[in-house]
Design goal:
Endonuclease/exonuclease/phosphatase domain-containing protein, alpha+beta, Endo/exonu/phosph_ase_sf
Length: 362
């Protein structure tokens, strides 16, 4: 945990008292607020707006005692919810937190399906406690490491072989206590399981927010067959097994890719905002935050730049010793003279045009 001093410095006693932390592992900001009933509500809104700007769309949970009546036509409650809503935050608590009123609340900019909340009485205060559980998704390092023991077909055969070779005569021995027998049984089974199914570390991308339920019952038998082929090749090292394993692995990988793509297509099709769903997935895969960067550029600054950039570029072009006329290729223009009576003072436009046409044809 780290203290966010740039937010805590905004605290104003009675009006808006602030404590702010950032969880270093998830990079989630946790802000707690208290507004005294005697405080100025407009000052509170101003401080809260500054806090939300500092957070700059980074993932955050803002909670506290706001001393407004949520879920009613309370004007201050509507103003507060509108301010949070303008920054993409939603309210998590609906029930009463003090007697019949909901004075405390939790706001977050996580997706609605990424958090759950509850209210309970801790018997420590006249206010009910609020609790929020958040599913952290789409972090910069989206890889997830898990230790597990894959249950493979070869492992099952090994397990059955070990268990079948054990001496079970102790079960019928009358001089053994029943508890000793049970402990021995559990130890034997546990040892056989750990030998047959060794622990392995798997590291994979966590796509749970985008693709769900893609690993179906059609893929599980394929995985078991591939594991069996892999174990057979490790044991016998024949060329035929290597070729069969390679082809089967390629087929299995194609099926994995196809099912993931199909599941992602369904996720995008079901989304209310399909373009946003596509870009959310792209940012997730690239490990890029969706936070909007702070920009102090105004519309006038933007327009002025493009109005002035043209003359500025031209003025910076060094003078050229070559004249534009010199770049035009020269052509041999034939000379001619008008015959007698052509183009005289009494010649009108149409007569001159006819004379020119005659000369041109010659």
């Amino acid at each position: 945990m780290g203290i966010l001093n740039n937010i805590q410095i905004l605290s104003i006693e009675s009006h808006c008292e602030v404590a702010a932390l950032r969880d270093s592992s998830t990079r989630v900001n946790i802000i707690t607020l208290y507004r005294s009933p005697r405080g100025d509500f407009l000052i509170f809104l101003d401080v809260l707006e500054q806090i939300l700007k500092v957070l700059n769309n980074s993932r955050a949970i803002v909670c506290g005692d706001f001393n407004v009546r949520f879920g009613t036509d309370d004007v201050n409650s509507l103003k507060l919810c509108n301010l949070f809503g303008s920054f993409g935050y939603s309210r998590a608590v609906d029930g009463p937190t003090r007697v019949k009123n909901c004075l405390d609340n939790i706001f977050t900019n996580f997706e609605p399906d990424a958090f759950t909340s509850m209210i309970y009485d801790p018997a420590l205060s006249d206010h009910a406690a609020q609790e929020i559980s958040v599913s952290i998704r789409g972090s910069t390092d989206a890889s997830v490491s898990r230790f597990c023991r894959p249950i493979t077909m070869a492992g099952r055969n090994t397990f059955f072989s070990i268990v079948g070779s054990l001496d079970w005569a102790y079960i019928e021995r009358e001089d053994w206590d029943i508890h000793v027998k049970f402990e021995t049984f559990v130890k034997n089974i546990g040892d056989a399981f750990r030998i047959a199914f060794p622990e392995k570390l798997f590291k994979a991308k966590d796509n749970s927010n985008f693709i769900k339920g893609w690993y179906n019952n059609n893929l599980k038998p394929m995985r078991n067959n591939l594991q069996l082929l892999n174990n057979l090749y490790k044991r016998y090292k024949t060329d035929n097994l290597r070729v069969v394993r390679s082809k089967y692995r390629s087929w299995y990988n194609c099926e994995l890719k196809r099912m993931k793509t199909s599941s992602l297509d369904n996720y995008i099709i079901r989304a209310n905002n399909k373009s946003k769903a596509v870009w959310d997935y792209i940012r997730f895969k690239k490990g890029v935050s969706s936070a909007v960067r702070e920009c102090n550029l105004t519309a006038n600054d933007f327009n002025d730049f493009f109005v002035r950039v043209g003359p500025k570029i031209i003025s910076n072009i060094p003078p050229s010793p070559v004249s534009p006329e010199d770049l035009i290729p020269l052509r041999n223009i034939p000379s001619f003279s008008l015959g007698e009576g052509c183009g005289g003072p009494g010649t009108d436009y149409w007569e001159m045009q006819c004379d020119v046409d005659v000369v041109w044809r010659q």
